[in-house]
Amino acid sequence: MTTTGKMEDAIGYPLRLALPLFAFFLVFFAVPLLILVWMSLHSAPDSADVGFSQYVKFLGDEFSMGVLVSTLWVGVEATLLSLLLGFPLAWAFTKSPGWLRSALMLVILMPLLTSVVVRTFAWIVILGRQGIVNETLISLGLINTPLRLLYTEGGLVVALAQVLLPLMVLPLITALSRIDSNLSDASFALGGGHWRTFFKVTVPLSLPGVMAGCLLTYAAAVTAFITQSLVGGGQKLFMPMYIYQQATSLLDWPFAAAISIIFLGAVLTVVWLFNRLGRLSQGFARA
Amino acid sequence: MANGSEARAAPAQDLAIVGLTQRYGAVTAISNINLDIKGGELVSLLGPSGCGKTTLLKAIAGFVRQTEGNIVIGGQIVDALPPNRRTVGIVFQNYALFPHMTVAANIAYGLDVRGLNRSEKASRVDEMLALVKMEAFAGRYPRELSGGQQQRIAIARAMAVKPSILLLDEPFSALDKNLRLDMQIEVKRIQRLAGITTILVTHDQEEALSMSDRVAVLSNGSLEQFAPPTEIYDAPSSLFVNTFVGSANVLPGAVVGQDAGEILVRLDAGETVRARRPVNEIGSGARVSVCLRPENIVVTADGSEGLPGFIEMGLPLGATIVHEVRMADGTSLKISTPRADFSPLASGTPIRLKVTALANVFPLA
Ligand SMILES: Nc1ncnc2c1ncn2[C@@H]1O[C@H](COP(=O)(O)OP(=O)(O)OP(=O)(O)O)[C@@H](O)[C@H]1O
Ligand SMILES: [Mg+2]
Hints:
The structure holds two protein chains of two kinds. By secondary structure, chain A is mostly helical. In chain A, about 75% of the residues lie in helices and about 0% in strands. Chain A has helices at about 5-10, 20-40, 55-60, 60-95, 100-115, 115-125, 130-140, 155-165, 165-175, 180-190, 195-220, 225-230, 240-250, 255-280. In chain A, α2 packs across α14 and α10 runs antiparallel to α11. Chain B has two domains: about 5-240, Rossmann fold, CATH 3.40.50; about 250-365, CATH 2.40.50.140. Chain B has eight helices and 20 strands. Chain B has a six-stranded mixed β-sheet, sandwiched between helices. In chain B, strands 13-12-11-14-20 form a five-stranded antiparallel β-sheet. A five-stranded antiparallel β-sheet of chain B has the order 15-19-16-17-18, with no helix packed on it. In chain B, about 40% of the residues are buried. The interface of A and B includes residues 180 and 284 of A. The site of adenosine-5'-triphosphate has 12 residues of chain B, from β2 and α1.
């Protein structure tokens, strides 16, 4: 190291090297965000008045608040479902022999290799009135008339969970494979059965991975514009679509900006709550 | 401190390992091991790194299902029993304490399984903490403990459930000398009192020789010798055991005759020494490796009897002095002498050597 400086000593490379990245963030993240905030403070698209009227409008409007709450809630549902599906998958992956692992990893990564539009259309095929699920149930004689699966919240949650599964599974695999196998052996030797070992040892020690997976999945679920629009089908409005409509159809840019800021704040609050929870699991990953 | 409950331990269980072989793919970790361990006995497994000690413990505990052979606990073949139904306690080489539980919760883990009530559990945990002298640490997490402290908690956790068989994988390796001695005595004491059949894996020969009823020496996955410590030391069954346990000077020689229960061997360096008769007969004239323990050779600074040589170096090592001696034919020997008798001799001093105990001979490989 040629030059000195406390920060530099701590991170081990000259800070100057980070300048391009810093500039990138400034131009493409911080500045647009500030413009958005500035825009949201206008009372009307062509007015010069500055104030919080757009925020008051949103927070006082039952319909808007409904959209916000249902978006945040769909995110929670999708996250929980993908955790429910992802945990056994990740666990099976870490317990599998080498060749099976490669196969499983391909299956896990496949969704990431396919366009989200394609995956979402696949769900339309599966859930539609003449879709695979309905056809199967009818041919088995379990139902007479097709069930309404598409354009329901349930359908959307399932589709979101599948589409976002890799985001949940990959951090889980990392966390699970970091757990020392001697720990579960120690539990067995002390008389613990499989269930006790799983819930008292494996699950607590995988919590950091659960946290990371949930954060990623949640953030992706609430902003999944394409899946929300196609599988949700406009029956129910969610925040990304709401913002899109305000901005491009109604050209109410200040209101769209205010919704965006509120949405951002709400998601960050949920993430923060998650992180607080995550503190409880601090140090669990250490073996 | 830890008396009341030790009395109600289960009766000691015999442990038999019959023709045990464990392969990992192409690697044979242990092959055809036979050990018959009596109830309440403490057996040490001694062997170089990678010889299969941990693998053998894992098979006994049931974490790996052996490729061939049987494990018999108390007369019952347990091959099909899962580890949680074998009543085998184990202390892992890396301790394997649950990182998300306090010391007390770690020790209580096995007690929860057994459905002890709150007060029984608390008193048992306190008892175990006292045993390993860690009372002040009940509320700490493993990451807040030193290696030696973690090791002691691992021992406490395994002993808390009163296993009928206890497997210890290098349980004292991270302890300093005094604490190690205390813990060795303590573990031995409880083991004896509770009659727990115990297998102790160790790298430390002194530990193996001092603590065990019998020692099993492993090399490359095979059992070399299984015998009481003094027999391992005095009458090793192979050149490997002789050189691995304690130290030995290995000299070439040839068998020249028989004398009662002993044989006579002529060293290439000159001089004839008496040796223990080997298990497999070696005929006269056969070339052999002769092993002489450093403490079984006496150095005399003058005189005309014995092997001639001169001092290369003298090292005072605490209670003993070790001399490196070079013989006329160029081979060098180590000789240790109690320090009370002697002060180190200067380099270059001409000396004579006398062998004071029976040597061991092994056919040349
Ligand atoms: N899971 C495994 N897969 C493949 N090979 C293994 C496995 N576990 C152990 N081995 C091999 O088996 C042999 C014995 O290993 P083991 O751990 O039993 O040695 P050890 O005697 O306990 O050594 P140490 O004294 O270093 O702890 C080694 O060669 C090791 O590489
Ligand atoms: Mg080992």
